[in-house]
Amino acid sequence: MLKYSQRFPPMFNRKKDEVDRLSARRGSGEGNFNMAAYHRGTTLTNLNRPDDIGEERKKLKRLRAMRRRLVGVMLVLFIIVAFGVALLLQYTGRIGGVKITNKGASQLTETDRNKYLRIADAYFAANSFERFSFARRESVMLQYFQTQAPEVSAVSITPSGLASGRLNIIVRQPVAMWVSGGNTSFVDSSGVVFERNYFVAPSLAIEDNSGVSVSGKMATSSNFLSFVGQVTAELKKQNLEVARVTLPRGSIRYVEFYLANRVYPFKAQITRNATSEASDIAVMTRYVDSHGLSPQYVDCRVEGRAYWK
Predict the structure, then answer these.
(1) pLDDT value of residue 150
(2) Which residue, 129, 154, 272, 300, could crosslink 170 as a Cys pair with Cβ 3.0–4.6 Å?
(3) Which residues neighbour 243 within 8 Å (Cβ) at sequence distance 6 or greater?
(4) What is residue 171's three-state secondary structure?
(5) Burial of 269 (0-12, 13-18, 19+ CB in 10 A)
(6) Once rounded to an integer, what is the mean pLDDT over residues 160-164?
(7) So what's the pLDDT on residue 34?
(8) What residues does each domain of the chain span?
(9) Which one, of 159, 236, 166, 182, lies nearest residue 204 by Cα?
(10) Does domain 174-308 have CATH number 3.40.50?
């Protein structure tokens, strides 16, 4: 029978001797060594006590809680900053410029630019909350502009930097003009009368042959100019171009429209509805052409009826 040293190589012998020594120490009560906790490669000095493990776990929990709080604070700060930037982008603290967006319109003069800026500042002074674009009532703002600048047909404000905006204006294009007493008035296709024109003067000018004092008369009223503008626009929709408009002698209640390529006028009543008047003129134009007539004039002052001479 082989001896113990022969059955096991020297390295196993050393391991057995080490285990025997530890067992002897355990039996003698030295070090209170826990054999169940022993593992290969682990020494007594590497073993953690239960109290140390508990403290380590508590420390890790505190670190995780601190990280969660830090992430939450940073998220709240990010939301606050993003909300503030969004409000600043919606806010118009000042208007940095004015621009006319119509094609073919002339450039703004410094006087006109200052005029529109003053109107905008006065509006926002009375409606401070509307400096924020989400609260702005553009229709109300347009009405306010038109009370002081009737040549404006649309207005808007676009962002132009942080807490700054640009005033965009669409102006009216005239279809006819009226010169009286050194003053020139214009009217657009909607029948709106204004004095500041940014386009080339229209070829259609109203001639006053009435010989009547224009002071306080219908000839110079906004209703008259509005009527002429609307009739001109309605006739254009039916491919009929107005060449000139005249006020006949001694009359302030009716006007004469001369259509292109025609030498005779169409008499129109100023107090009538413009759309209905234009429709009657168009009907009579087709009737005269279809019957080959050459009248001196065509009277369309009564709705639904017409006379010619």
Answers:
(1) 93
(2) 154
(3) 204, 258, 259, 260, 262
(4) strand
(5) middle
(6) 78
(7) 54
(8) 52-82, 93-171, 174-308
(9) 236
(10) yes
